[in-house]
Amino acid sequence: MPDSNKHNLVVDMDELKEIMDNDMELIQDCFADFLSDWPGLLDEIKNALTQKDPEKMNVSAHKLKGTLKYLAAEPAAAAAEAIESAGKNQDLDNQDATLLNLENECGKVIDFIKNFTP
Questions:
Q1: What is 11-114's CATH topology?
Q2: For the segment 50-95, what is each residue's pLDDT rounded down to a tens digit?
Q3: What is the pLDDT of residues 5-37, one digit of tens each?
């Protein structure tokens, strides 16, 4: 697949294997960690939006972005970065579409993980 299409992948397995030094057990552990951590991080982001707390939104989205980048899930990481940026810029109004995009992209990652076979 050409490099220009890599950013469209849910999870770039070539990049992930490089990040994880081809350790499939580590990859599976990281996938399991994401599945268990994801709901809490999403709740933190939603609560920050509801409470109009840009700093909390920024911090929570930054954690999620880091996890997604570590999993080589670039589209979802970009969606988390958009939320992080909104928090940094104290732009908490009209973030419904941004949040929905994050949920959709992370949903794709979750589906990928659930269907993953080493």
A1: Four Helix Bundle (Hemerythrin (Met), subunit A) (1.20.120)
A2: 999 999 999 999 999 999 999 999 999 999 999 999 999 998 888 8
A3: 555 689 999 999 999 999 999 999 999 999 999
* Among candidate residues 86, 33, 101, 97, the one with its CA nearest the CA of residue 56: 86
Closest CA to 83 of 109, 46, 31: 46
Among 73, 58, 72, residue whose Cα is nearest residue 106: 73
Among candidate residues 67, 76, 84, the one with its CA nearest the CA of residue 101: 76
Q: What would the 3-class secondary structure string for 42-82 be?
A: HHHHHHHHHCCCHHHHHHHHHHHHHHHHHCCCHHHHHHHHH
Cα 96 to Cα 82: distance, rounded to the nearest angstrom: 12
Instruction: Provide the token pair at 94.
Output: 């009209």
Encoding tokens for residue 67? 């996890």
Residue pair 40/104 in contact (Cβ under 8 Å)? The answer is: no
